[in-house]
What we know:
This protein is mainly beta. It has one domain. The chain is built from 1 helix and 8 strands. A hairpin with a 2-residue loop joins strand 5 and strand 6 (58-63).
Amino acid sequence: MKREGGLVALVSRAAAAHGLSPTDAPGAGDVGVVRGAIEWRGRVLRPPTAAVCVGPARWALLTEARGVAIADLPVLSAWSV
Length: 81
């Protein structure tokens, strides 16, 4: 991931290659990179995570511990589908 410039850079290139445009106002069905939240060794980490927008300020992401989670998460970058 580091070699690719991080998750935002990687997803940005993939989104552009598939004709997706960046957006500052993601809506349901759009994709993005958000700050997820995972607990590891008693600490909460907030790594960049790919997600799908499911409504205003709501993002769905796949978690190892809980399966699909939906939450209001900080958006690092988003693309309109």
